[in-house]
Design brief:
This protein is an alpha/beta fold. It is about 40% helix and about 20% strand. α4 runs antiparallel to α5, α5 packs across α6 and α6 crosses α8. The longest helix is centred in the last third of the chain and has 19 residues.
Length: about 270
């Protein structure tokens, strides 16, 4: 099995887990891989570069793995388990990850056979393009434990995560609303609800995600690149102003307090924007 070579692309943008991500990668028992890192680029440009790099190496590797810098292998044989699930009929596998902020199993980390290709478009929100499968199948595994997502996030990372989940839940600025993905919207509002449950259970650091998500829903934050310098500036202003921070904590707690009401708020924005 180890004769199958993997190219791993790591997307990094201020994630606090980057060092442990690399450490756990280098500890994998499956060692026949190379990796590259794409750092601090806007989300769409980073993904376009990632998939371009993959396609340019189609003759040099058997598999490609997309790894975010906040994803950490759970065990030393995780990569080995992932490779073992491929057969001749499978071109793409998605694994659900343990999303630590929400305590949910969420999509996911993706692995591809190297003859897969991608066609780019102008959508700046949905940047994980559907792969061109060349007659092969996709498989989804929600019950295999290979990755922890965001096990040790910074406050800004949590703030950005809330913004990202809110944007992806309502999918704004899509000209033809029929192209919105209802199921994907439901996934992301479910993650916000999971974060709210964990916050109310005592994980108070998660308030940063709830503030970020609330500011998107209230249209205070524009639905742009979620880890942008603009959002970093907003975060720093909140962090440095205790009075404003305390007010936002109270507002966000009340805003996300009731999960059924959260779904109503989400549905209204999803169908109106």
């Amino acid at each position: 099995m180890n004769n199958k070579k993997i190219l791993i692309g790591i997307l990094r943008s201020k994630e606090n887990e980057f060092d442990i991500c690399l450490k756990k990668l280098k500890e994998q028992t499956y060692s026949n891989y190379n990796f590259f890192v794409i750092e601090n680029m806007p989300n769409k440009l980073a993904h376009d570069q990632l998939y371009t790099e993959f396609m340019s190496n189609s003759n040099n590797y058997h598999y490609f793995l997309k790894l975010d810098a906040d994803m950490v292998f759970v065990e030393n044989d995780s990569l080995k388990k992932m490779v073992a699930l491929f057969d001749q009929s499978i071109g793409h596998i998605m694994f659900y990850v343990n999303d630590i902020p929400s305590s949910l199993k969420t999509p996911g980390i993706q692995m591809f056979k190297s003859d897969i290709t991608w066609t780019f478009d102008n959508d700046s929100l949905r940047v994980d393009y559907a792969p061109n499968m060349n007659g092969l199948e996709s498989r989804i595994f929600s019950d295999i434990n290979v990755i922890d997502h965001m096990p040790m996030p910074s406050n800004f990372q949590l703030f950005s995560y809330g913004i990202h989940k809110a944007i992806k839940s309502i999918q704004p600025y899509i000209p033809n609303k029929t192209t919105k993905h209802l199921n994907k919207g439901l996934i992301h509002i479910s993650i916000i609800n999971g974060i709210s449950r964990n916050y109310l259970s005592g994980n108070h650091k998660l308030i940063w995600s709830l503030i970020g998500a609330m500011l998107v829903y209230k249209k205070v934050i524009e639905p742009i690149n979620y880890m942008s310098d603009v959002n970093l500036g907003i975060f720093k202003e909140i962090e440095n102003d205790k009075v404003n921070f305390d007010l936002l904590v109270s507002d966000a707690k009340n805003f996300w307090l009731n999960e059924i009401q959260n779904m109503f708020s989400w549905s209204r924005l999803f169908h109106s924007i």
